[in-house]
Structures are given as structure tokens and as C-alpha cells.
Amino acid sequence: MELRTLTLLFIGISFLLYITIAIRSKAKTTGEFYVAGGGVSPLMNGMATAADWMSAAAFISMAGLIAFLGYDASVYLMGWTGGYVLLAMLLAPYLRKYGKFTIPEFIGERYYSKTARIVAIICLLFISFTYIAGQMRGVGIVFSRFLEVDIITGLMIGMAVVFVYAVLGGMKGITYTQVAQYCVLIFAYTVPAVFISLQITGNPIPQLGFGSTLAGDSVYMLDKLDKVVTDLGFNAYTGSGQSTLNLFFLTMALMAGTAGLPHVIVRFFTVPKVADARKSAGYALVFIAVLFTIAPAVGSMARFNLINTINGENAEGVAYKEIPGWFKTWENSGLIAWYDHNNDGKVQYAKGSSIEGNRPIFSEQVGSHGERVITNPAVPVIAPGAKFANEVYVDRDIMVLANPEIAGLPPWVIALIAAGGIAAALSTAAGLLLVISASISHDLLKSTFTPNISEKKELFFGRVAITVSIIIAGYLGANPPGWVAETVAMAFGLAASSLFPVILLGIFSKKVNRIGAISGMLTGLIFTFCYIIYFKGVFIAPFAENIEANWLFGITPQAIGGLGMILNFVVAISVSYFTSEPPAQVQKMVEAIRTPATQS
Q1: Are strands 372-374 and 362-366 parallel, antiparallel or unpaired?
Q2: What radius of gyration do the chain's Cα atoms show?
Q3: In a domain, 598, yes or no
Q4: Which pLDDT score, from 0 to 100, does residue 199 have?
Q5: How many Cβ atoms from other residues are within 10 Å of residue 375's Cβ?
Q6: Which H or E run contains 394?
Q7: Which of 353, 378, 396, 568 lies at a CB distance of 3.0 to 4.6 Å from 520, suitable for a disulfide?
């Protein structure tokens, strides 16, 4: 059976499963719509949380980061997993004990202010829409390649599926759909990794193959990869090229951002008791660890295979007419490009920019070798230590999806990875959409502007909010601010700089008041968002000649949330110190949240 047919079959079966679950789990009350009625078991919630958290960034893009950045990408592993531990230990049990539906609801009551609630909603919307842009881009990438449709068509298919199970089922439908999606995505991620590890190292366990010798050779794979990449002018794969300060702030942003993500926090409101919240956090960490311990092996082996396939055994390049079919297929999707700088007809990959800008611009013409012609090639520069200038553009987000094809695995394995990528993107997109819906229908309408609205009307507006959000998400997916993991990292930075400090202070400090909380959230959000907007080229950045040289203290837009978080803490605490203390009943509420309880 050909690949396209297998892909349609695998994705079709998984979609049918998700929609069936949604129909059978249709939410009838606001409690079921927002928090699944609070009756999800810890094991099921742990699995759903893992699927909710392991987005397209984790499944599709993180291994791509590791493939291209090597050791420097370990910060994403540390930040995202460490942040989850932070969430499980410091926030989740206390917020579950508080027992409300949403984060803005907690902030509004803890800081006794409708204004604080509205500011929290604004922060949540900035975070969620930035995050969802990455997920929908992931959906578009998978469909554009494996269903051989354009990205816009792929996005519309994904939007339609999310619409059915998010609008119908709410959190109840999403929870059980995410359990199914976790099973699909983890199986899809593991099977190709086992095949490729066995192929390259002879070890069927990817986590061990990562540190093993090459099959039939005494050379360790990572040592060989180091030599291969340095011969092409790149930094050593196991070396670091980032400043310590930027690594520090990026780790902070990812950790605190994970702990401040509204769509992950809300999962802990779906279990019956506080003790169950702790248990589900433990289960989720185990389920997450399966993928995160495999990712370094997938990334390194993908880079190894990519270089060997493009440059050939003698590392001189392979004639375009002889290049494997996967290269031309991904070229047709617009995610790989080749420009023959030296006119020798060979595809040659090395350090350096092959194109001007972030994306190749293709013309309608076909080159003399049959390639798609790009109109924005970069000036060829041979990097120190390299034999030739780079002629290849490779989108980082394709590495996991293309890896089985590069390795020559069977079509059913390639189709499986497509189904897994879709599951990862849609599971997180659904959780984000529900958080957006709850913030609008519950926090903005029911709790702020129209308190007398009926439950039926609230449920209706919640579904309308999801519908509108899906349309916006589709637009953002078609026009994302960067590749998947980059976009998601910026969402984590916004969460770290806006919501995390006031949630943490709201639980552990009786002295922080509403003025301090509002000032801190606005400071962190505005500083971080403006920095991202500036350096991602929306306003002034296109006119700057060397934009990276202008980074504040050398901190990247992905890492700036760490500094924004510090500013939030400083402003919130300082303003609270110079203004009146919170009311006595609020201080008692803070003490009650932290008091251990066996039943809640």
C-alpha cells in the first residue's frame, strides 16, 4: 500500500476515534465543559496532561532543535521537564485545593479585584494565541507533506476536527480524547526511534543507542557526529555556542513558563481531590519522560542521517538527479530548498545561510536539474573548516517527520509518525482553545460583565468563543512568528513573565496586594511582548542591519521571559510594600490554601 493511502488510513482512523470519543462524552453542564465535572481519575488525567503538555513543539520541533543545536538544545529538555516538576510541587495541589475553574478566577479572588481578573485574561489570551500558532503550524506541516495538500487546506482540516471534539465535548471530551492522543503520539514517536537506533547503532533502545558505538564499528555515534559536523564548518555537536547568561534566562523562562501555562494548570482541576492532583502529576511526569528521554536520540540520529544522505559517503555532495525521493517530496512542500551556487549539479550541505530571510521564496520555474528555483538565495560564503558553501535550506520542523523517510523505513512507519504529529498538535490546540473559551465565557462574561447569565447561555457563549478562537488559531497557524519550538518558547516566556509570579505570590505571600499584582503582570507582559515584537521583525527590526547585536545583554527573544519574570516579581513586591496590605479575609484565604488537607 502506498504512503499516501496509508497516511490517509492512519490519520482517518485516529480522527474517527477522537470524534467518537467527543460525541460520547458531550458536555451537558459548565462543570463538565470547563473541568470534566472534576471526576477524572489520576491515571487518566496524568495521561491527558502529558498529551496536553507534549505539543507539536515537543513531538515535531524539539528533536529538530536537538538535531541542529546539539548540546545547546538541552536547555529545552531541562526547562520544560524542570518546569513541570515546579508546577507539580509548587502550584498544582494548591490551586486544586482552591477549587475554581480557571486561573483568572483565582487571580481575581485572591487579589480581590475585577481589574486583576481582566488583566489575567489579557495575559492568558496573549499566551494561548502565541502558543496555538505553533500548534496549528505543526498541523499544516504534517498535512502539507503527507496528504500532499497546501498548508492552508491542511489547517482547515485540522480546524474542523478540533471544532467537533472541542465544541461538543468541552474538557470532558478533550480529556478522554487526549488519553487516546497520548497513546497514538507516544507509539508513533517510539517505533521509528527503535528502527533507526537499531539501524545506526545495532541497539534497539534509543536511549542507549544514543550513547553507543556505530553498528559494525568501534566509533561512538556522537564522536562520529562531532567529526562530521565540524568538517562541514559547524560547531561540535556536543559543544556549546550560547552565552551562559542566555542559557540561564532561557531555562528560567521555560521552567516558569511551564508552571504558568493555563491549559496545563487547568488539568489539575479535573480530578476529585487534592491528593489526586499530586498523583496525576506523578503519572504525567512518567508519561512525559518516555518521549523526552527518546528525543535526544531522535535528534542526533536525524542529523547524522541527514548529512550522510545529502553529502554522500565521500562528503562531496550527491548529484540532484540522484538525490533520494524524500528530498524532492519535502522540496515540493516548500520546507527544503536547494540552490546550486557552484553550478556543479551536486547538493551540498554545510554551515552557512543558503537563502536570504527565514523562508525560501519559490518561483514558478524549474531549474536545469529539475529543482524548484528559489528567488532569494544568499551570497555563498564558505565557513572556516568547510569544503564548500551551503546550498541547502532545511526547515527544522521537518526533522522528526522526515527522519523515517531519510532512514528508508517502511511506509507504514512514516504514516504512523504523521498520525502522531497530528495527535500532538491537536491535543494541545484543544486544551488551549478550551482555556481561551473559559476565560471569555466564564471569567469575562459570567464573572465580570454579566453575572446573571444562565448556565445554558454561558455554555453557549463558551462554544461560540471556541469557534471564533479556532478561526483565529488557523490564521496564526498560516502566519506564525517562527518555527514551532521558537514560537512555543515565546509563549512560555509570556507565561513566565505575566502569570507565574502572581500565581506563586498569590499562594505563598499574604502581603502582595491587588495593585502590586496588576502592576507586576502588566510590567512583565508589556516588557516581554514588546521585546519579542521588536526583535521578531514586526515594527523596527526589519530596518536594523545587525539585530542580534542589539539584544539586551545578549538575551534572545525566546529567553527574555526570564528577565520579564524578574521584573514582574520586583514590581509586584515593591508596589505591595508601599501600598496597603490585602484585607484580612484574603490573608486568611491564603493561609487556608497552604494548609494541608486530606479531603478537598
Answers
A1: antiparallel
A2: 24
A3: no
A4: 92
A5: 12
A6: strand 392-394
A7: 568
The share of the chain scoring above pLDDT 90, in percent, equals 24
Tell whether the model's pLDDT for residue 86 goes beyond 90: no
* pTM of this structure: 0.80
Q: Cβ distance 85 to 311 under 8 Å? A: no
pLDDT of residue 542: 47
- Is it the case that residue 600 has pLDDT exceeding 50? no
- Look up residue 84 and give its three cell numbers: 513541570
338 DSSP β-pair partners: 392
**Contact present, 252 and 565 (Cβ < 8 Å):** yes
DSSP symbols for 185-250: HHHHHHHHHHHHHHHHHS-S-HHHHTTSBPTTSSSBHHHHHHHHHHHTTPPPTTS--S-HHHHHHH
The three-state (H, E, C) secondary structure of 39-57, written as one string:
CCCHHHHHHHHHHHHCCHH
Residue 465 near residue 128 (C-beta atoms within 8 A): no
Q: Is 290 among the domain residues?
A: yes
Reading the block at residue 165, the C-alpha cell is 471534539
Beta bridge partners of 319: 346
Handedness of CA 496, 476, 558, 228 (dihedral sign): positive
Return the pLDDT at 481: 57
- Average of per-residue pLDDT across 129-148: 74
In a domain, 566, yes or no: no
Q: What is the mean pLDDT of the chain?
A: 83
Instruction: Please say whether the beta carbons of 154 and 143 come within 8 A.
Output: yes
What whole-number distance in Å separates Cα of residue 456 and Cα of residue 465?
14
503 Cβ contact partners less than 8 Å away, ≥ 6 residues apart: 91, 95, 103, 106, 107, 259, 260, 265
Indicate whether 281 belongs to any domain.
yes
* Total domains present in the chain: 1
What mean pLDDT is predicted for residues 421-437? 75
For residue 178, give the CATH number of its domain: 1.20.1730.10
Residue 160 confidence class, pLDDT cut points 50, 70, 90: confident
Tell me which residue range forms the domain holding 233. 3-305+409-491
